[in-house]
Structures are given as structure tokens and as C-alpha cells.
Amino acid sequence: MKRIDLIYNKLLELSRPDGISASELSEILNISRANVSFDLNRLWEEGKVSKSSGRPVKYSISSKGQNHSNNETSLDRLLRKNESLAEPIEGAKAAILYPPKGMHCLILGETGVGKSMFADYMHEYATEMGVKKKDSPFIIFNCADYTNNPQLLNAQLFGVKKGAYTGAENDKEGLIEKANGGILFLDEVHRLPPEGQEAFFTFMDKGCFRRIGESDTRTADVLIISATTEDPSSVLLKTFTRRIPMTIKLPALRDRSAKERLELIRDFFEAERIRLDREIAASLNTMRALLSYDCPNNVGQLKADIQLLCAKAYSDFLTGKKREVKITSTDLPPHIKEGLYNEKGNRILWNETLGEKINFFKFSKGEDDIVKQHEEGSIYDIIDRKVQELRLKGVSNFDIETILENDITKYFKMYIRGAENAISRKNLINILGEDTLLLIDKMFYYATTTLGRNFDSNTFSALALHVNTLIERLNSNKTIINPQLNWIIKQYPKEFQVAKECVKILEDHLKINVPEDEAGFITLFWVLEKENREKDKVKVILIAHGESTATSMADVANKLLGEDYVVPINAPIEVSPLEVLGALRAYVKNDMNPMGYLILVDMGSLTTFGETIEKEYGMPVRVVALVSTLHVLEATRKARLGIGLEEIYKDVVSMNSYMFEHTYDRAVKEQAKKLAIVTACLTGEGTAIAMKSFLSHNLRYDKDLLEIVPLNFADKHLIKSKLKEIEQDKEIIFVVSSFPIDYDIKQFNIQDVISLRVINELQEKVDIKTTLIKMEDVISENIQGVDGKELYRDILDTLNRAKTILRMDLPESTIPGIILHIAFMVNRIMNGQSPSEYNEKEAFIEENITIYNAVKKSLEHLERKYLIEVSQDEICYIMNFFR
């Protein structure tokens, strides 16, 4: 029997009219008070028990008792756990029950608040109340999926008559017909083009519609529930909103109570437990972090984050890394772990909702569970199949773990994007004005339909900013010569013709002539998106001594990853290095990949080949020595994902912890430079300058320490040299660009910045870098007897050594704190002061021996240079920064 059932049955048995406290029940059942209180509150939320309002709180069986009211509806059950939804649920009931067949309504709320789930509840309520039949359809349609192709969007909704347009070979039923007798849910309805909204007027008024290309009208009985993240008055036609009298506003997760958020967390864990058919354990700190971390994408993000934690824990269980599906705070990604950092501010909240005595919250199987296999295509199904396949091939658990990590991350990236398109459009309206944005819509629609290609939202944002500055230039009688015009016309004739038509759209709107040079610039937007999809990737070449050593290692990697990607070159003992170099030269000469080459070698003179190839062919090359099959797998996996050469090189090198002595970061040796943010575009200065202005208004920074540098390029191949030139006297924190740059600097695309999705991350990077610049002076002013600036650089070196050994990154927000901690530690030891004894030191070291050894090894350089000896207690205090 489950613990919660045991507690409920004891309440039934005792049947005290005045109730019983959690403490009394705890003593009777010999169960911790925290666990009893936890389960009693769940029973209260389910309506099975009542509780008193005084102190101590006393619990008793509710009037509903064991036999819950059969009249309770799905919306009533939703309200019981979500008190903040009282008003939305009241509105939903009114909309469904409004005679004769319900009232069309609009659900408002931020991304991820659960608008589609709420609409599903409304449909269930409609069937429960007999407004809709039990088998009535509930059709979900996301208007954003067709935002750049209005014709296809309307075809999906209203259907198509055979021959209505090229490719319409058969009559096609639309979603309105499919939803007949039920509910059609239009998500992101603000993406419905004006003509689509107008087509809905007639349908909502009279229940009539026409398929595309059809003259006869059709009828359907469909209740329309739509949803948007935007202000309806600014994104929807007034004639459309007038036909939707009921508006329902859902609260953001941050506006809901901690009790509600905890219930959501429990429900999501319980759902994963049922999918896994296995107990899931989450530590107290894990639950605290999930309860407190910033969740900008609301309930949807909370659910996806919990699914990712469960998937990784299940992977660790299958590979033998853990004995059970258990999640601890060390498994949390940085953005969730940040929920633990404000312990002082959250301590009362945690104690009230979670208690202090439960080490692990266990989500266990109940007797009434329906046991089922992992549904096909689920993340758990993918993990099971992958593990089985790799084990049959003899792959070790350690290597399986490495491969699975990428698969799990890719699976959950499906959720990550797609949330900010509406937000960015709102910001674009603020920057450009609605007229300009409608103009971009026309140009985008023409390009999409003519080229038969869908463009991403970043391309849309970049084009919008460019056209805005183009209009300003033309209004000021300023023109820019496009030096690549002839080359663009020759290289991209189809895209250039589309750009010329876009220029005509501009001319019709502006009533002035637009130079042909501008068509050349606009062409680049259609080309860049295509090139980004088709761009080359870093090539991985494996050279090893022996008749077939390289071939065998490459064959293992290629088979495991399902693609012949690694290029093997064998180096038999009797063959001279010069002949092996000749084989490498022949391959590179025939390939000439601008993304570069990662050459993996086993030993000897082979390590010098990279420099020779780079000089002779001008291609970027990096060489990694002493490689194993695991190195080949990791390098190939990252190369196939399109990751840049420098990042792959660093990741592969970092796999050899014994190589840390040779990976000293060059930046540590340099004096502090002024900081820079670069905004870059390929089509004239306008976009880059617009982004500089946007960042200047949305970021706080010291203009004496940081400069925002706008760059424009007619040729994207010039950008690397320009960035290197800037780096001569500035440290570039990040780049905001309308196109991807193969350069080892953090990059953000325009779409993410304008949507404000990453603005907090940008601000944090600016704050941290500014703090680090000032850190040398802070150390110099507070520590006597040493060169503060030199000690600062030595500490950075120590941290880099530790990170390399542990193959991990520290959260940027913790770096200033750990630098100061180590600096004052050095000063304290030099002055002969002893640290406070670390509580339960031996057990802590034993539990975290890997971190202990890494920190101890990394500190040896400081010990030698400053003639100090760092005690175990000091090492333990430092270890906390790496946990």
C-alpha cells in the first residue's frame, strides 16, 4: 500500500470529529512529520480531507469522503489544484454553455502558460455537459507553421478545390470541415493573415465558408477557440475581434502560487514515472531548484525541463552510472541550479512547501497504474533502442553515455525555439512601424512562394531592419554602391530576380525609384539562408601507424554514428612519413574545405603535418595527438552537428586531463582590454547600427569600459579578419549578427535579441565581464605583498586547469566569487592564518574524490609560485564552487 493510502485509511479508522494534526498522525504511524504533512496536503487538494484554519492545523475526512462527487467536471478538478485559474475557468464554462452552441472565445497568455491544454479542458467540459458529443473532434492548428505562406495556410483551414492552383491535383478537405460538430483551436491566431481573418468573418457569422477555388458555399458547426500571446487590439483586425466576445486570460507561471507550481512539478514527474514504468527519485535540492528557478517560457518550459532531467537520469541508469533513476542537484543544468542560489530569500518558501526532512521525493508505482511500453518515438523508447544497439556492437557504457548525451539534447531542442516569434514581431513594430512590417510581409510572401523555400524568423528580422534603414537612406537621398553587384547577378540569378520584384514592391510603396544595387543587397538574404543550410562542415581526418589502424578506428566511429564521415589514412611502419604526408596533401588539395580540418594522429612526426597543410593550402587546421576511438567519436559527433573547428578542437583536447599543462589560456596572459560588443550585417550599415541602438537602450553598461561596434560587410569572408583586428585592443564579449560566423566567439542572432529572449543573458555577460575587468584592482587594493594583477591571472590559470581536468565549465556568474575566494585564501595562508575546519571533511572528500583530486592538482602551480601549502579544508571550500 502506498504511504498516502496508509495515511488516508488511518484518518478513516480514527474518524475524529475535531480532526487530527500531522504531528499526532506521525507518532501513530511512525512516519516522519514532513512526509505525513506532505501527503495530507495532497489529500486536501484532491478534496478527500478537510483541514481547520487554526493552529495546529487539524485534518479530517471531508464531506465528500471516499466517494467523490460524480458531478465533478474536468474543469472543477483543474481548479482544485490551480486556484489562480478560478476566473479563467469561470469564463470557459460560460463560453461552452452559452446557448445555443457555445460562444467563440480568445485565450490570452504568454508563451508556455498552457493555452492549448486549457482549450483541451474546454473541449472535455463541452462533452461532459452534453454541449458536444463524446466523440466530437478537437482539432489543433498552429497558424505560425504557415506564417510565411498565407495561401497554404488558408488551404489548410478552408480546403482546396481540385485545380485551384498548380499542384492542387485533388479536392482537399480543410480543418473546418474536419472539426464539424466539435472545436477548432487556432493557436497563435495573430499569425493568421488579414485575408484569412476576413474569411473567418463569414464563417463565425453564418457558419458558411468556401474552399479555395470554389464558388459554392459550405456549412459547418464548429466552435472556434483561438489563442495569442499578443495584445489583440494591435495584431488582429477589429472586425475579427468583435466576433469573439469572450476573452480568457491565463496567468504566467511567476504569478501563480508556490503550491500550484509544486503541484505542476509533481504531476510532470508522475507523468514521466508512468511513461517509464519505474520509480523516479528527485532530491530535496532538485525540488527546491525547480520550485524557484526563473522559467520565462512558463509551464511549457517547466515540463520540458523535467522531461529532460528524467531522460538523462534514465540514460545514467541504463548505462550503469546510477543504480536507480535518481536526480540530484549535480544533474541540474545551470539555469535550473540558479534556483538554489538565493537560499536566504527562498528558505521560508521551501520549508512551507517542501519541508526539510525529506531527502528524496519518490514518485512510485501505484496499484491502479496501467503498465504500458514506452510509446514509440518517445525519448525513453529512443534511449532503450540506442543502448541495446550500441551494446550489441560491444560499445562500453562510458562511450554509450557520451553518445546518448547528444541524442537526448537534440530531442529536447524541438521545444526550445518557436516561442519568441510573436514577441519579436511586437518589438519590430515598435522599431519599424506597422506599415514597414506589412511591406516586409509582402516581400517575404513573394520570395517564399517564388523560390519554394521557407525562411526562418531570423532572416525575416534581419530583412526588416535592413529595409527600414534602406527607406531612411532613400528618403535622405543617400545611396550605397554595391561593389559585388555583377558577381551577385551572375552567381545567384534566380534569387536576384526575386529581389528585383521585391524592389518593385518597395517602389510601389515609396513612390520613388530604388537603385538596382539594393536588389543585390536583398539577394543576399535569400542566399544566406540557403547557404547556411548547405554549408560545409569541419572535416575529420584520422592518421595512425599500422597497416589498418586508422581504417579500423574510423570504421567503428562511422558505423556507430551512421555516416561515413571520418577520413582514415593508414601509416604502415615501412612507409616514410613523407609518403603519408603526400596522401594527406592529395586529399586536402582535392577537397579544399573552408571550414577546416581536424587531424587526429597517434604519435611521432605526424603531429607536424597540420602546420605544413595550413601553410601550403591556407586552410584552417588543428591537430590532436595520442587519440583513441573515443576522441574520434567525439570529434566526428560535433563536426556532423556543424560546430566550428576551434570549439571541436578544445573539446577533444580537454578529454585528456593529463594535457592540462599545455592548454594554458592565452587570454590569461594578456592585460585587460576594453570590452566590445559587435553587431554585424552583410547589407549595409543600417541593420548593424539599428542593433547597436537597440542594445544601447536595453543594456546597462559602463561606456568607459565597453563599446558597441557596428560592422557591415559586402563580403562575408572578410569578417574574420575584421574581428581579429578588433581583438588586437578589445575583448569581444559576443556578436549579434544576421548570419552565422565561424569564429570562436559567442554569437546571438537578431531574432533572439529583438524578441528579448536572450536580453537577460546578454546583460549577465556584460556585468560579469565588467566585474572581471575591475577584479585586478580589487585584489591589488585588498591584498598586500603580492602583485594583484599577476595573482589574478594566476588564479584564472588555476581555474582553467581545474575545468580542463573535470571537463566542465563554471557558470560565469560564479567566477568573480571564486577568484576573490582563492585570492584571499592565498593571502591568508601567506600570513600564517589557518582556515575554519570543514565539517565532515573526510566524508565530503570521499564522496567527491574526482573534484578533490582535480582542485588539488590545479592548485600546485599556486603552491609552488607563492610558497604556500593549501590544506584539505581549503580545498573542500573551493570544491563547493565545482559541485
Automatic annotation (TrEMBL):
Q: Which GO terms describe its biological process?
A: phosphoenolpyruvate-dependent sugar phosphotransferase system; regulation of DNA-templated transcription
List each copy of the PTS EIIA type-4 domain by range. Answer: 537-676
What residues does the PRD domain cover?
A: 431-536, 786-883
What PANTHER family does UniProt report for this protein, alphabetically? PSP OPERON TRANSCRIPTIONAL ACTIVATOR, TRANSCRIPTIONAL REGULATORY PROTEIN
Q: Which UniProt keywords apply?
A: ATP-binding, DNA-binding, Kinase, Nucleotide-binding, Transferase
**Is the keyword Kinase in the record?**
yes
MF GO annotations: ATP binding; DNA binding; kinase activity
Q: Which InterPro entries match?
A: AAA+_ATPase, ArsR-like_HTH, P-loop_NTPase, PRD, PRD_sf, PTS_EIIA_man-typ, PTS_EIIA_man-typ_sf, PTS_IIA_man
List, for all copies, the residue spans of the domain called Sigma-54 factor interaction.
Answer: 78-311
SUPFAM superfamilies on file: P-loop containing nucleoside triphosphate hydrolases, PTS system fructose IIA component-like, PTS-regulatory domain, PRD, Winged helix' DNA-binding domain
Bias class Polar residues marks the residues at 60-73
Which Gene3D superfamilies has this protein been placed in? P-loop containing nucleotide triphosphate hydrolases, Phosphotransferase system, mannose-type IIA component, PRD domain, Winged helix-like DNA-binding domain superfamily/Winged helix DNA-binding domain
**Any one of the GO CC terms:** membrane
Q: What is the lineage of its organism?
A: Bacteria, Bacillati, Bacillota, Clostridia, Eubacteriales
Bilayer-spanning residue ranges: none
- Stated name of the protein: Transcriptional regulatory protein DagR
Looking up Pfam families in the UniProt record yields: EIIA-man (PF03610), PRD (PF00874), Sigma54_activat (PF00158)
Residue numbers spanned by region Disordered: 52-74
